[in-house]
């Protein structure tokens, strides 16, 4: 189990490295959709497997609903990556990542905000949930 946890942690460093490269090339101030397309290219170049705009099923009282609920990226079936290009990360953005992680039963999530001067220090936040803790 410890090796699985290390695999997830190593993957998150690769994801953040790819995001830093996109930010280094483009800087802040663009639309989220631009960063998303560039990050998809960066993931491909780095041989990081991902699903983009993954529809997340919502089940309510036994009914699967068509809600158009989507996460920006699901990376290697292990990490949810949600992108923002906003002045501030709000608690609702963090809740969104946790919801995606819990619904999909994914152990780790990364919230990336490209609208910052330095992405490494201020533009990314990592989350883990009980699925990560179960890897011990």
From TrEMBL:
It holds the Pfam family PDDEXK_3. NCBIfam families: GxxExxY. This is GxxExxY protein. It comes from Algoriphagus limi.
